[in-house]
Design goal:
Fe-S_cluster_assembly_SufBD; alpha/beta; about 375 residues; about 45% strand; SUF_FeS_clus_asmbl_SufBD_core; SUF_FeS_clus_asmbl_SufBD_sf
């Protein structure tokens, strides 16, 4: 282990000792069942299994470009970026994740480099009760452009867990399309902590999808630090059975004249639970901000549970901001239309639900030009 990695882990372990575990008094875990889920994550992080070889890999669909670097994490400046990641109520979990042997990649795109083909990162949890704690750092040089897709999956083992950290730093006028797809098995649990930082004129289009897992918590912080920075944040999820999805977001405007727009959509059925808690924060001096936040849910069962807590705090002038949420049952007129054309009821319901979620995916694809 090099000195930088050793110092990074020691500092994280020291932070973990000073931070409290999430509990029911932690507002950022409201409706999040910390006694059940946060405690389970912390317990697994206490005794992590060895990391399997090639647990985290990256591939480039096209030819390798001289301006693209994909390397294991380890340089001091890379670790400094990770050490500054902020969680949303899960500081102890983040610190413990970073105290483990570092498992992850740094993807660096040189200034002016246009990566025409997507980069795909695959993080694979292996074995029964397997645990993986990958950290992915993306450094976008000035005027660069890239599309990155990160997939988290298991190998079929029971009760697998992933505790992932993602950070992207976009220099002026950089452009990043970033998709995170979490697809552990039905007994898996996932915790994802992401932070995106956008300088002047930078553009981020981001999509998160959680599939299959018993429990997933996503914490996403987007910080717009430069004028004319632009962030589009999307999520589309179908939550059924007794699954639990917990989403927490922050859109932080610290510079004037930036734009952010968040749209999170969930279809929730059976006895599943979906929770969304978001905040738009317009800091002092961030005048002429445009910021929007919407959480839309389709409830398929009276036994399902949906909690939606959009938030807005404005400390500047001349801003355009809105936030809101809506929960409704499946549209009976759409069902009737499909069934009147010979489509069976179950298939019609599936098509309506898929169409509801597809809206967010299409908007992401449209923004990225894919």
């Amino acid at each position: 282990m090099n000195d930088a990695l050793n110092h990074f882990r020691q500092q994280a372990a020291s932070r973990a000792e000073t931070l409290a575990a999430p509990d029911r008094l932690n507002e950022d875990w409201r409706y999040g069942r910390p006694a059940a889920y946060a405690a389970a994550v912390l317990d697994r992080l206490q005794t992590p299994p060895p990391v399997a070889d090639e647990a985290v890999t990256a591939t480039l669909a096209g030819p390798v470009l001289p301006g693209v670097s994909i390397q294991p994490l380890g340089k001091p400046e890379e670790l400094e970026h990770l050490a500054s990641v902020h969680s949303i109520g899960s500081g102890r979990i983040l610190a413990m994740q970073q105290s483990l042997p570092v498992c992850g990649l740094c993807i660096s795109i040189a200034p002016g480099c246009i990566v025409e083909h997507p980069i795909e990162i695959t993080c694979t949890v292996r074995g029964e009760m397997g645990l993986l704690s990958p950290s992915i750092l993306i450094l976008m040089g000035e005027g660069s452009k890239a599309t990155i897709r990160e997939i988290h999956r298991g190998d079929g083992g029971n009760s697998q867990m992933i505790v992932g950290v993602q950070k992207a730093v976009l220099a002026p006028h950089a452009s990043l399309s970033y998709e995170l797809v979490q697809e552990l098995g039905s007994t898996g649990r996932a915790m994802e902590i992401a932070e995106y930082r956008l300088a002047e004129g930078a553009t981020l289009n981001q999509l998160t999808r959680h599939l299959h897992t018993e429990w997933a918590r996503q914490e996403t912080t987007c910080v717009l630090t430069g004028r004319e920075a632009r962030a589009e944040l999307f999520s589309a999820n179908a939550v059924d059975g007794s699954r639990v999805l917990d989403q927490r977001t922050r859109q932080i405007h610290s510079s004037p004249g930036a734009y952010s727009n968040l749209l999170y959509k969930n279809v929730v059925g059976d006895t599943a639970t979906a929770t969304f808690a978001g905040m738009i924060l317009v800091e002092p001096g961030a005048h002429e901000t445009d910021a929007y936040q919407a959480n839309r849910n389709m409830m398929l069962s009276e036994q399902a549970s949906i909690n939606s807590l959009p938030g807005l705090e404005i400390l500047a002038d001349g801003v355009k901001c809105s936030h809101g949420s809506a929960t409704s049952p499946m549209d009976e007129e759409q069902l009737f239309y499909l069934q009147s054309r010979g489509i069976p009821e179950e298939q019609a319901q599936r098509l309506v639900a898929e169409g509801f979620l597809h809206d967010a995916v299409v908007r992401f694809r449209g923004e990225t030009g894919e």
